[in-house]
Description:
The protein is mostly beta strands and 212 residues long. It has no helices and twelve strands. It starts with 27 loop residues before the first strand and ends with a strand. Residues 1-19 have low confidence and may be disordered.
Amino acid sequence: MRLFLLxxxxxxxxxxxxxxxVSAPGINFWKAEYGxxxxxxxxxxxxxxxxxxxxxxxxLNSGEGPSLEAEVAHFSKLLKRWNEPDSQANIAASIGVGxxxxxxxxxxxxxxxxxxxxxxxxxxxxxxxQAVFVPTGSRLVSTLxxxxxxxxAEYDEWAPWIYWTVQHENGDGVGFAHGPSLVLMHQNYLLExxxxxxxxxxxxxxxxxxxx
Length: 212
């Protein structure tokens, strides 16, 4: 499984679904993730000063114990960027607040995320820590993944990327998961198809993103 709880938009030099938390200013975005134990959708907008705001809904259910759900308004900020002639590195953070529930317990929900990544036009690596808090429950997700582009593509061409992800999620019925994914990017659209293996066996997942 993979959880992407951040405001992710299209990267500057690497067309990966996790390359950039905050895009160029004045861009609207919509994202959706559908996983074995996790579903997520978000809509938002980026602004000058390398930050974005938006609204997101989360549903996490391992199949063991009550599900965890949250709807939050969130704020993402690029903390530091290193630009080189042929590569880029970033550190970004996100926080959110809203309503959430776990079973019959309902109340204030919060999210927090920290991401560090490095990318060029052929390689991308990312480390991400993510947390969702609701009454009587929480989830902490650690994600490490790396990707490679078989060839360089132009903006108006289909750009494929191949990734391998290792992730750990706390909670009953979850733990480590790993597997490959194929990312296809074309202009302002991105589609990700992946197969992950966990304690639940093998399962297919998908993600989608667009800028408008």
